[in-house]
Amino acid sequence: MVVANTTVEEVLAALEQADTLESIQDAILKLREHFNVDNMVYHWVDSAGEQYGYGTYPLDWAARYQEQNYIRIDPVIAGCYKRFHPVDWKKLDWSSKAVRAFQTEAIAYGIGNQGYSIPIRGPNGQFALFTVNHTCDDDTWEEFTETNRRELILIAHYFNQKALEFEPNRAPEQSQPLSPREIDAMTLLAIGYSRAQVAETLSISEHTLRVYIESARFKLGASNTTHAVARALSRGLIVV
Amino acid sequence: MVVANTTVEEVLAALEQADTLESIQDAILKLREHFNVDNMVYHWVDSAGEQYGYGTYPLDWAARYQEQNYIRIDPVIAGCYKRFHPVDWKKLDWSSKAVRAFQTEAIAYGIGNQGYSIPIRGPNGQFALFTVNHTCDDDTWEEFTETNRRELILIAHYFNQKALEFEPNRAPEQSQPLSPREIDAMTLLAIGYSRAQVAETLSISEHTLRVYIESARFKLGASNTTHAVARALSRGLIVV
DNA sequence: TATTTACTCCCCAGAAATAGCGATGCCAGA
DNA sequence: TCTGGCATCGCTATTTCTGGGGAGTAAATA
């Protein structure tokens, strides 16, 4: 694969200055041209399952993806969500039937067979992906990712920075912080303790514990304990 | 500030091959030399408050830090934990009395007054920091970070990768996959639905739903619904 | 000093979850 | 073919959680 001679440095510098969505799109197009790949996408996955992103995927595929809620079966999402590091799509689990149907459909919509995705995380459980996608054979792709991994990681980082600038309301999705006792309670509940066990562990009455759970629930906007624990987890307020 | 002429590329390549702790330490020393800074540290902060890391901080300071449990007041930890992006120490909140005492003590132990820390995150709320630290004036430091930000981000990434290799038990654990219906159930529970609501949403009887919850609980080794949802979340089996 | 925040404790009634035993049919892989 | 996993439905009794009250202390903050 030949890589064009626009420098990534230039594009990153431009991206850093970018102050409109158009200029970001422009950067992504330049980068696609530079790396000479089919697609390049930044994809934000919200804790509420909301999605957001920009890139070069065909619009009808993006619409289809959203409409079918493919995020729930997309192995790229699932795989990156579990990992720290950039992932080659080949290494993902495509074995399930639904997933293979999804893959076939994606290719029909013009998505390349090869892909390389970089997971990006932030506080409050925020999660995004930067993906490079192409149609070629395994060896070519291997060589491409080997060669460009470092730059792609950096680019992912820069796109994420820009995404936050443009969608600041997605960043401080943080809720009121939990008090230490509330964190204790949520943490112990998340590791499977019953209320009685938690109360005993914290050496407080079960009634007191309940007050913590309730206030945590309130702070987290949760409708029950399970919901509260789930939110605390996905916002990174507790870690299990 | 003069930057020595060992190339970062070389060090990163060496780091990639590193298979002993010594070689990692060696890489960190080379990098310190290259960037000509006082200290360079990779610091992992575990969910349980466990710590782990390597770098060039004086051993007595590291010991002191651990012993005093300074992680609880360290504004670098607090600040990076809240942010996505590299942070200059100057931008952190040093206003509290305890924090200033901490800072004074750190400097006495040989820590530079300037610092630049890069937060790194992974699944399950894992969190680490890569820090460059130096003694100089603000303008010099500004110029240094401006110049080297990109490389530092990459380096942070590589150190994190190595840290995971050497501490595989810190990586997320695998478990039996959940069936589609189990995923549905767990997901809806995680977003706050009660059993009745979930059953209605999935158009199944509450009893059937219960069977799913129970089998998911069993697969996840969870002792109750909240626990099961927490595990499903932190293993990336569901996304909320 | 006044105010807020966190932490602790108490009662009660009704709603929800859990544990125990069932059952049938379908589909895929060994 | 048969085993195992998946999806679906049923009953009963017990335990646990939730939501509605109220109240006092200590510490930090304004």
UniProtKB/TrEMBL annotation, chains A, B:
Keywords of this entry: DNA-binding, Transcription, Transcription regulation
Family annotation (CDD domains): LuxR_C_like
InterPro entries, sorted: TF_LuxR_autoind-bd_dom (IPR005143), Tscrpt_reg_LuxR_C (IPR000792)
BP terms from Gene Ontology: regulation of DNA-templated transcription
Domain of life: Bacteria
Pfam families linked to this entry: Autoind_bind, GerE
Gene Ontology terms, MF aspect: DNA binding
High-level lineage: Bacteria, Pseudomonadati, Pseudomonadota, Alphaproteobacteria, Rhodobacterales
Classification via PANTHER family: DNA-BINDING TRANSCRIPTIONAL ACTIVATOR DEVR_DOSR
Span of domain HTH luxR-type: 171-236
Protein name per its UniProtKB record: LuxR family transcriptional regulator
Database matches in SMART domains: HTH_LUXR
Organism whose genome encodes this protein: Roseobacter insulae
